[in-house]
Amino acid sequence: MPDATPRSRPTQSDRDRTRFVTGAGRYLADLDAEGALHAVFLRSPHAHARIEAMDCAVAEAMPGVVRVLTAADCREAGFGNFRALMRYRNKRGEGLVAPFRPVLAGERVRHVGEPVACVVATSRAAAEDAAEAINVDYAILPPVIGLDAAKAKGAPILHEDAPGNLAFDYSAGDAARVRAALAEAARVIEDRIELPKLAPNPMEPRGALGRYDAAGGRYRLITQHQGINEIRADLAAVLNAPAEAIEIDLPDVGGAFGARGAAYPEHAAVLLAAKLTGHPVRWMATRSESFLIDHYGRSTRLSGRLALDREGRFTALDVHYETDLGAYVTTVGAFVNLHNPMQTLGGTYAIAALHGRFTQYFTNTGPLGPYRGAGRPDIALLIERLVDRASAAIGIDPIALRRLNAIPAGAFPYRTPMGATYDSADYASLLDAARAASDWGGFAARQGASASAGKLRGRGLALFTEVAGGGATDRDEARITLGIDQDRVTAQIETITGGSGQSHAETYAFIAAKRLGIDPADIVLEASLPGSRLAGVGSIASRSTQSAGNAIASAAEALCARLLRQAGLRANAPPEELGIEGGMITRHGEAVASLAETLAALGGSLTELGAMPFSHSFPSGCHVAEVEIDRETGHPALVSYVAVDDAGNIVNHVAAEAQIHGGIAQGFGEVFGEAMRYDETGQPLTGSFMDYAMPHADDLPDFTVLDRPVPSPHNPLGVKGLGEAGTTGALCATANAIADALRSIGAEMPDLPCTPLGLWDAIMAAKSDG
Question: Dihedrals φ, ψ of 230, to 5°?
Answer without folding.
Answer: -70, -50
